[in-house]
Amino acid sequence: MKRRIGILTSGGDCPGLNATIRGVAKACYERMGDDVEIVGVVDGYHGLIYGEYHEMKPADFSGILTRGGTILGTSRTPYKQMQVIGEDNVDKVANMKANYKKMKLDCLLTLGGNGTHKTANLLSQEGLNVIGLPKTIDNDIWGTDFTFGFHTAVDIGTEVLDRIHTTASSHKRVMVVEIMGNKVGWLTLYTGVAGGADIIVLPEIPYDIEKIAKAVERRGKAGKGFSVIAVAEGAMDEQEAKMKKKERARQRAQTGVTTATARIARELAELTGYDTRVVLPGHILRGGSPSAYDRVLATQFGVYAAKLVELERYGVTVALSGNAITCNPLCDVAGKAKPVPLDNPLLKVARAMGIAFGG
Ligand code: F6P
């Protein structure tokens, strides 16, 4: 039986997208031979909405295991906008369904994070055959232990902290390093532990600046005249944690210091007198070739997705549970967050090492 599979990558890119695409394609060709046709949808849901896609050949999937980014292109089409008819008068959901039909797809594979999964679930509920694959450096997708892209970002972040250590100790400075993760702190926690951060600040543990300052001063008294602090992009202090997102943003805009990282650095300099610097690795954490771990995970996910396609098992997203690759219903995954639990074992390990969390 012929199968026509659409693939798209949506949301922020990350290392391992191409490795996953390759895993899906090679395993599909192995399992179904000439009976499989693959269509690449360009720039995520944008391509599905506006009918931008191209037929792919086996050669397109060779040589991409190590390549960063995505060969299909990506874009952010916020879920909230999906059911809203915009100025261009386009009914996005209707268009996606029509283009799925026009492409003569038997199923659609969506590689993405939380937003992508919400739209994937919507399409599944609209009757399309959808399989999700969990990507993001944030590792915040419900139901999977790890997403692909996460471990590569941990490796890159660790290298940043290693390099920051040498300059921090030479100058006896406090270095405040912002790690991506606007909602959850997985990346900051793993990077902080791997990179030997002295203080780790996570969105899940609202901070008290006095506690962070005390931790820096404690190190000073112990003869360590420098500190490396890993701060998650989405960190907030105890007062901010009581506010709604918009109120928090408004207050930050009024003070002119829009990020927790900048605020922590400024307040620490005032409280401790240490020369303090902010470091922003930013999108570097998402760039370049996937790590060995992510190449393996992406390949495992891709091969599993190919099996789901052959079995016509749709409406699910692939997941890692312990050492097993499995899947969860899309409707269970969509719209759920996966914050770092306060009893997370690595969090306990970090505390046992004397790493301060500021809260
Ligand atoms: O979702 C992944 C992520 O890298 C977040 O950690 C970060 O907050 C966001 O994407 C940045 O988005 P953009 O690439 O659109 O600036």
Helix content: 40-55%
- Overall shape: it is elongated
Helix-strand pattern: EHEHEHHEHEHEHEHEHHHEHEEHH
**C-alpha-based Rg, rounded:** 22 Å
Largest sheet: 7 strands, mixed
Q: What fraction strand?
A: 15-25%
How far is it from the N-terminal to the C-terminal residue, by CA? 58 Å
| Number of contiguous helices | 14
Residue runs with pLDDT of under 50 for 5 or more positions: none
Which strand order do you get reading across the main beta sheet?
Answer: 3-2-1-4-5-10-11
Bound molecules: 6-O-phosphono-beta-D-fructofuranose
> How many distinct beta strands?
11
Mean pLDDT: 97
Briefly note the structural class of the backbone. alpha/beta
Topology (SSEs and partners):
Layout: E1 3-9, H1 17-32, E2 36-41, H2 45-50, E3 53-56, H3 79-82, H4 92-102, E4 107-112, H5 114-125, E5 130-134, H6 150-171, E6 174-179, H7 186-194, E7 199-201, H8 209-221, E8 227-232, H9 238-241, H10 245-255, H11 260-272, E9 276-279, H12 292-311, E10 316-321, E11 324-329, H13 330-333, H14 345-352
Parallel strand pairs: 1-2, 1-4, 4-5, 5-10, 6-8, 6-9, 7-8
Antiparallel strand pairs: 2-3, 10-11
Helix pairs in contact: 1-12, 6-7, 8-11
6-O-phosphono-beta-D-fructofuranose (F6P) binds near residues 136, 138, 180 and 182.
